[in-house]
Amino acid sequence: MAESLINAIIARSRRTRRPRLDTIETIQTRESYLTMSATLQSELQARLGALIDPHSEQALGEAIRVSVRNGRAAVRVRLNYPAAGWHAELEQLIEQTLMHDHAVEAATVEIETEHLAHAVQGGLSPLDGVRNIIAVASGKGGVGKSTVAVNLALALQAEGAMVGVLDADIYGPSIPRMLGLSGKPETTPERRILPMRSHGLQAMSIGVLVETDQAMIWRGPMATQALQQMVSETQWEALDYLIVDLPPGTGDIQLTLAQRIPVAAAVTVTTPQDVAIDDVRRAVAMFAKVRVPVLGVIENMSTHLCSECGHEDAIFGQGGGQKIAAEAGLKLLGEIPLEATLGRSTDQGAPLVGSEGDHAIAGRFREIARKVAARLSLQARNQAIRMPKIKIVE
Ligand SMILES: Nc1ncnc2c1ncn2[C@@H]1O[C@H](COP(=O)(O)OP(=O)(O)OP(=O)(O)O)[C@@H](O)[C@H]1O
Ligand SMILES: [Mg+2]
């Protein structure tokens, strides 16, 4: 009896001991698996972090995080600029990097976008309802600054941002025509001006507030006062970017505006001819004086694109914009050809980027928009602006 009890206890302890041994083996296997996963994860993190963002020209670094489990990778990318038109390509690039030499079996990629507010000139307060103001400037008139401003605004919108356009070109406001604005804007009971709406954009122009003939006779101080009033009294609603079409040139009015509008950054528009270099230099010097960073140069009418046959002709010679940008110490953000559809559509109030989104030139504007916003995202932040954080997760 006693013996059989002892045998039974031994048998039970064997039974109980065995699974314990199994558990230890399992733990060991899992541990080595986890170590493998951890090694693989840090290796993949390094690989992905080294990918270069073509818009900011910086490595993705901390903006991309990967975790690996059971041979499956989950990747999260956080971008601080709108890039809807790049997401598919980025996802593909990430998947290729992960699948390279069969590192993982499967991967999921999530891209989230958070628009941040960036610092403005010292002493100025940011505008209510606006995260970032970007000034579009040119050293001289007629280079297509307004055409670029409205199409750039629409391109930022197409990439996923909330965008507004402010026409500060007091002596030649062309935004009402280009965005098809008519009538007078409404005002709130507090006498704030409500922006007009067009093609999904919020828009305001000195041209819809006062008669152009009246504005034409205003002298500098009166003109800048009127513009400043328009800037401060318009009630923008949750904009990520407000594109300001500045008057052409680098005179007193432009300098005063560059000093008084709380601008996060500027871009300059130029044509490719050699003579344009002095105009670009003057614009750069003006913004340097008021400590506004210039993100780069957009070359307009760089080539002639035949809207019939698609032939592209470098009528002003090649590389003009690149040379101008380099000589002014700036980045060339992109080149827009001279093309009849672009001019016609914009002059008729249906700018190409909004009306013909599949057009090759719309694609160029969208790439420029991503570069502009990505370069701005590298600038110092503005902690003073508190707007609800909106995350777009795909
Ligand atoms: N890339 C382009 N292709 C075809 N037409 C263009 C292009 N860029 C501008 N234009 C046309 O050239 C004219 C001048 O352009 P826009 O009004 O944009 O220039 P601007 O620099 O703003 O001029 P201003 O100094 O008078 O404000 C417009 O009729 C516009 O449609
Ligand atoms: Mg103009």
Which fold does the CATH topology of the largest domain refer to? Rossmann fold
- State the assembly state of the protein chains: single chain
Shape: globular
Low-confidence stretches are 8-22
CATH superfamily of the largest domain: P-loop containing nucleotide triphosphate hydrolases
Mean pLDDT, to the nearest integer, reads 87
Helix proportion: 40-55%
CATH class of the largest domain: Alpha Beta
Which CATH-level-2 architecture of the largest domain?
Answer: 3-Layer(aba) Sandwich
Say how many strands there are.
15
What does the model show?
The protein has 394 residues and is an alpha/beta fold. It folds into 2 domains: 2-114, Fe-S cluster assembly (FSCA) (GMP Synthetase, Chain A, domain 3), CATH 3.30.300.130; 130-388, 3-Layer(aba) Sandwich (Rossmann fold). The protein has 13 helices and 15 strands. Strands 6, 7, 8, 9, 10, 11, 12, 13 and 14 form a 9-stranded mixed sheet that branches. Strands 3-4-5-15 form a 4-stranded mixed sheet. Helix 3 (145-158) crosses helix 13. The radius of gyration is 28 Å and the shape is globular. The site of magnesium ion has 5 residues, from helix 3.
Write the layout of secondary structure elements.
Layout: H1 2-49, E1 52-53, E2 58-59, E3 64-69, E4 72-79, H2 84-99, E5 106-114, E6 130-137, H3 145-158, E7 163-167, H4 175-178, E8 196-198, E9 201-205, H5 206-209, H6 212-216, H7 220-233, E10 239-245, H8 252-260, E11 265-270, H9 276-289, E12 294-305, E13 312-313, H10 320-327, E14 332-338, H11 340-347, H12 352-355, H13 360-377, E15 391-393
Parallel strand pairs: 4-5, 6-10, 6-11, 7-9, 7-10, 11-12, 12-14
Antiparallel strand pairs: 1-2, 3-4, 5-15, 8-9, 12-13
Bound molecules: adenosine-5'-triphosphate and magnesium ion.
